[in-house]
Structures are given as C-alpha cells and as structure tokens.
Amino acid sequence: MASSASSIDTSSARIKKGVAPLRAGQGYSFVLRRLHSLSGIVPIGAFLIEHFISNSEASKGVQAYNDQVKFLTSLPFVHVLEWVFIFLPLLYHGIYGLYIWYKGDSNVGEYPWSGNWLYTSQRWTGIIAFIYIAYHVIDLRFLGVHLMGGGYQNAFSKVWFDFQSPWTIAFYVIGIVAASWHFAYGVWLFAAKWGLTTGDNARRKFGYVCTALALVLIGIGLWTITGFVRTPAAQVPWVEHD
Amino acid sequence: MANSKTVIFKIKRQQTPESKPYWEEFELQYRPGMNVTSALMDIAANPVTRQGKPTTPVTYDSNCLEEICGSCAMLINGQAKMACSALVANLKQPITLEPFSKFPIVRDLAVDRSVLFENLKGVKAWVPVDGTYDLGTGPRQSSEMQEEAYPLSNCISCCCCMEACPQFNDKTGFVGAATIAQVRLFNSHPTGKALKTERLKALMGDGGIQECGYAQNCVEICPKELPLTKSIADVGGQVMWQAVKDFFRT
Questions:
Q1: A111 in reach of chain B (CB within 8 A)
Q2: Distances from the Cα of A35 to the Cαs of A194, B140, B147, B204, B208, in angstroms?
C-alpha cells in the first residue's frame, strides 16, 4: 500500500520534469534580449532604411549610383562607422537571434493563428535574412574589387555583373523580402513588447503602419534591382576582377 | 427510445509519472449537452474500452464543472482547453484527450501545475496587508480602475496560456502570460503597488517577460478571455521604465 501510494505522490519531485519557475531577478537575459530587440531598430533598421534609399539611386543610372557610393565611402571614420553601426550590431542581432530561434518551439500545427504564424515567420525571415546578408556583405564588401578608398566608380559595375545571373537576382529578391518583412514586424514587436502600443486598437493600427513599411521597403528594393537590370551593358564600365 | 448515436474518445494514459504512455479508446452513448468532463464521468462509471477490455477509470483533475476552478485543463484534439466547457457536440471525432505536454504528469490526464504557483510567489502576486495591527480599509478605487482590474482577476490558473505558448518550455523557463497579467493586476492595486518595484525586478530575471515572443496564442486560448497581450505590453513598458531607472539612478 505504502509503495503504491508513493509511486503517485509527486510532492518530492515537484516541477522536476516540467518547465523551471521564474528565476526572479537573476541573470542577464533581460538585458541581452532587450538589446537584441533594440539593435534591430537602431542601428540595424536605421541603416537598412538608409541602405535602401541610397541603393535606389541605381534607378537613376550609373553615375548617380557611383556618386552616392562616393559620398558614403568618403564619410569620416568610415571604417569605425561600419564596424560599430553595421557589422557588430548585425553579428550580435544575428547570432543572438539564432539562439532565440533555438529556444522557441513553434506550434503553428496545433495553434494555426495569425499571431502564431507571424511568430514563426519572424524566425524564418530572420534566418533567411541572416544568410542573405552574410553572402551580400562578404560578396560586395570584402570580395572582388574594393569600393573603399576611391574605388567608388566601380560600384554600379560590381553589382551589375553580379546580376547577370538570374539566380543572384532571385536570391536578392528573397533576401529583400525577408529582411523588409523581418524589420517591419520587428518594429511592430518592439512597440508591443516595450509597452508603446499597449491597447488592442493601437496594436492593430500600428500593424497597418508596419505592413505599409514592409511593402514600401520591398517596393524600393525591387525598384532598385530593376535599375540594375534595365541598364544596358554598353553603359556599364568594365571592372577588373581580382 | 434508444439513441444509437455514440462518441469515440481516444485517451492518452500513463500509470505513473515515470511509466510509458499508451492510448485507449472508448465508445460512449451520446447525450445532449455532453461535455468532456461528463464523458470522463461516464467512463469512470463503466471503465471498459471500445474493444471490450476492462480498464481503470481515467484520472483527471476537475472540481467546479463550470469553468471557474481551472483544474480540468487538458489537450482536447491537440489544443489546450477546459474539459468542463468543451462540448462534445462542438468537437471533431474521434475526440483525443491528452495531458498537458509541458507539465509533469501525475497520472493519465492529471498534471502538476505548481510551476504557476511558484511563479506567482516569485512575483509576489498578492496585496501586502499582513501586519501586527489593523491597517483599516484600503484606498477607494475608481470605477475605471475596477473595470481594468476585474478581467485580470478572472484568471483561473488553468495554465492554458502557458501550454499554448511557443516560448514556454525547458529552454526558456518562461514565466508565462498568467503571471504577467497578475503583476499588472497587483501593480494597479492602490495597496498592491507597494510591491511594484519588487515585482518588476523579479520579471527581469531569467525566464522573465523578455522571453515573450508575442505569438499571442495566450490571448486566443484563454478560456476566461483575459487581456493577456495587453497585459504583457503594459507590464513590458513598466519593466522597461524600471530598468531605465535602475540603470541611470543606481
């Protein structure tokens, strides 16, 4: 009798196999997670908008695009700027984002609701954007002809030659859509989680704003791609590849 | 007049917290107004499987039978629901019943949900009125405050919001929406807000409010329709202000 009673008595093993209770006031995950959220808006999101606007100069032709690159690459402390405001935040946001993805258990199969789909899509667009941005930065910033230190006149040509492959264009379209969506929904999440849009109405209305933001960014991105694709080879200066 | 309409239940059973789970099927006579709890009572009255094999009655938690005690939460057709308010007529058959997947199993459909109690203690989800002398009546609350607080006080601690949350798991140890809603309730209480700072600092701990991924399953699944996403946003703002104050003023 005693043994059968003890076999269903869970008092000694409470919460042993379940989820751990709150570690009230302990650890650093709050700061790391909020920093992850913030870094997606500033500086990464701010740079994303700047980057889309700058690149849209491609729709005005080779000279306008190269002039924009000249302006950006001639900013004072440009290497400090790009590491502090672009590369390091991207690395932090991307790597900590992978950790966040690993810790979540998507369950859209059981609970197929719009918020849950957006939760899952934020993880998928994040990983797609991370892979795309890694390729994009390595390919255009670190490989091939260098655009820093007076190499700006090769900028348009460098991208144009890349876009000779339809696979590259397809990858860019996927990357632009994923990054735009991830950023816009990230802004919505930021407003909700940091307590800016507490009411249901406020969150719904801000949802429209963020959807518009995503569509505008995607529109600018695709317009920029057509800027390169529409430019005939005769107008594009030849670039010596390494 | 004999009613030949029957209902089939597939129930995931487990004898002890450590033993292997297995499935049993039951075929019950349908009765108008039948719900999952009454079906489990029917099985207890005649514990024989669909195959005619005698078995033990299914263990499950229940008490009030009117969706107010919060004890009969389980996975019904894969979703977290209260068994007492889950009408058989509204469910797709065969109806599958499983224990909550993220809580230690006691036996069959009964799980140990004491993690919520631990979390509520962790955030001091109470109004501090204990003392050595009579503190008298508390401050009056406006009707606006009452209207904000009442829906939050409807929480029945069923843990559906935690079970349905993609972030509530072993890897995060997330505190869950129910506890965050109670922080909002007690922080808004004129006497309860004496512990506001302690509650907010507790929620900054590992597994705290930052683990919310805003999938919003909590607010969809909540049987008492608590404003859970609004509470997470509101308390999220409170925690941020606390963090900013801590950072710049200490």
A1: yes
A2: 12, 40, 35, 13, 15
* Total domain count, chain A: 1
Q: Which of B214, B221, B232, B250 to mutate to test the interface with A (most CBs of A within 10 A)?
A: B214
pLDDT for the residue B196: 98
Q: By residue range, what is the domain housing residue A91?
A: 31-235
Angle at B171 between CA B166 and CA B172, to 5 degrees: 65
Predicted local distance difference test score (pLDDT) of residue B135: 82
CB pairs under 8 A between A and B: 184
The pTM for the full model equals 0.93
Residues in chain A, pLDDT under 50: 1-15, 242
B1 falls within a domain: no
Hey, are the CB atoms on A18 and B217 less than 8 Å from each other? Answer: no
Q: Which structure tokens are listed for B186?
A: 């007690």
B147-173 pLDDT, tens digit each: 999 999 999 999 999 999 999 999 999
> Is any Cβ of chain B less than 8 angstroms from the Cβ of A76?
no
Range of the domain at B233: 114-249
Q: A232 preceded by cis ω (within 30°)?
A: no
Please give the pLDDT value at position A9: 47
**ipTM score assigned to the predicted complex:** 0.93
Interchain pair B171, A24: CB under 8 A: no
Residue in B with minimal Cα distance to A97: B213
B144 within some domain? yes
Q: What pLDDT score does B3 carry?
A: 54
Residues B168-181: b if buried by 16+ CB within 10 A, e if exposed: bbeebbbbbbbbbb
C-alpha closest to that of B50 among B7, B93, B113, B84? B7
Low pLDDT (below 70) residues in chain B: 1-4
Which pLDDT score, from 0 to 100, does residue B1 have?
42
Same domain for B152 and B213: yes
CA distance A122 to chain B (A): 10
Tell whether omega for the bond before B57 is within 30 degrees of 0, i.e. cis. no
